[in-house]
Amino acid sequence: MFVRDLWYFGCLSSELKPGQHLHRELLGQPVLFGRDHNGKAYALKDICPHRGILLSGGEAQQHNGETHVECPYHGWRFRTDGSCAAIPSLTAEQAKAMDLTKIRTRAFPVHEDQGLIWIYYAREEDADKPPAVEPPKLDIPEGEKPRLVVRDVFNCHVDHAVIGLMDPAHIPYIHRQWWWRSAKSVHEKEKKFGPVERGFTMLPHTPSKNSYLYRLLGEPQTEIRFQLPGLRTEYVQAGGKHFTGFTAVTPTNENSTAITIVVYWNHPLIHAIPNFLLKTGISIFVGQDRDAVNAQQVGLAYDPKLMLIHDADVQAKWYFALKRAWDKHRDTGEAFRNPVKPATLRWRS
């Protein structure tokens, strides 16, 4: 159903202050993201193993220098590594007989960098093994933090969200507005692609002149990278400055996908644009994708046979091939082989 043994976007660093936690649903499972009282991020399965209530409904407390998450139902306390620290209802005699080391909720590896908190989601049987790959890292200047965030939810399986966002042929029909594209601006395009780690990239190129916003930046160079499990990053460079848009396409469950767009920049022209205008533009753009994908679900409910064609749908084909290759690698232990080969793709958009 979902790709495992990879790092997923969890939440923003700014969403968690010391001693705070929040609830997320990820890959069909509840996850508690927290920050201990010393400032270190952590993640736990958001289920109390006693009676199944969400731990995130309780408080994060300090006990002897440790952060404990207290269950709101019976007060059981769990350390940030998932181990049970206390069961208040036990008498002194019962506490001596109870082995608390056998009681725990699952703890996930987390990594915090560039204003993002990542969670490594392994298969259940590999939950205690160290991460198989390094956490993602954006190719932006050191120390940069998010300047703008846009969130949305697509009511679909993650696969339809991913290929919907990478689809180049829908742009003149779904994103038709004066500040981006118009029906009259459609023309033939040719882009070169190549493989990257667990993904592919549209190699650096001068972006299309039928985009008004790109023209404002002068003579920019753009590269668009995609990596499993659902990470899309657009790097725009102009005059030694950058505008970087990172999009995390994260499965909530099999019928819902969270879209998080995080934008970084140091380009002076972007500084001059009020944040609310930029956020409004991005929100409109992703909202149009959301509406299209949500409308698609009506037809998909009839389980039609679908088509992927050359060249406009090749990126979608690569996505499914990458998923198959990664699953084979994790199932068999064979080295991962990226199925993407250098290619030049052409389409009208």
TrEMBL record:
Against PROSITE patterns, the record matches this protein to:
RIESKE (PS51296)
Q: What InterPro entries does its record include?
A: Cholesterol_7-desaturase, Rieske_2Fe-2S, Rieske_2Fe-2S_sf, VanA_C_cat
Provide the protein name: (2Fe-2S) ferredoxin
Highest taxon in the source lineage: Bacteria
Per UniProt, what is one GO molecular function of this protein?
A: 2 iron, 2 sulfur cluster binding
Alphabetical list of PANTHER family matching this protein: 3-KETOSTEROID-9-ALPHA-MONOOXYGENASE, OXYGENASE COMPONENT, IRON-SULFUR DOMAIN CONTAINING PROTEIN
Keyword field contains Iron-sulfur? yes
Domain Rieske intervals: 8-119
Q: Which UniProt keywords apply?
A: 2Fe-2S, Iron, Iron-sulfur, Metal-binding, Oxidoreductase
